[in-house]
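Hey team,

Filing this mostly as a record. A colleague (T.K.) asked me to run one chain through the structure pipeline before their review meeting, and I want the input and output archived in the tracker in case anyone asks later how it was produced. No errors, nothing strange. Just documentation.

Input sequence:
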Amino acid sequence: MHNVSSHQELAREFRGHLSRQANLCDRLERLADSLPDDLNVQESLYVAQSLLPTVVMAHRFEEDRIFPLLRKTASLSTLDRLGFEHMGDEEYANDIILALRAYVSERRSADAETLAWMMRGFFEALRRHIAFEREHILPMLEKKMLS
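Output structure:
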């Protein structure tokens, strides 16, 4: 059984993962807004390099450390849905990485609109996912600390 301090540490780590993902969403939004004329190549390459590791680390943390604690109190279908969203987000993140790298190297203006649309679709969905976890999963974890 976990003690209160380990639950507090888990909650702190969880908040950190959520914040890092939210920061990535902000960076993607700025990149999407800058297309096609004002794209910062260095920022694009940084985002392309950090996107998948950031998302995957957050998802593995949730699935390996948070979800097992909540299996008895959270709806199983909710945790399963979040797990499926994780898989979709990781595939989508990989597609964005490939498209972003291709755009940076080729700079075809026809691709700018598609790339911006892809990034917006990804960060809007990820922001909804983060909001759900902040509003529902994090409070369940914090409630678990008290029991």
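Quick notes for T.K.: Residues 48 and 97 are 5 Å apart (CA to CA). The two ends are 11 Å apart (CA to CA).
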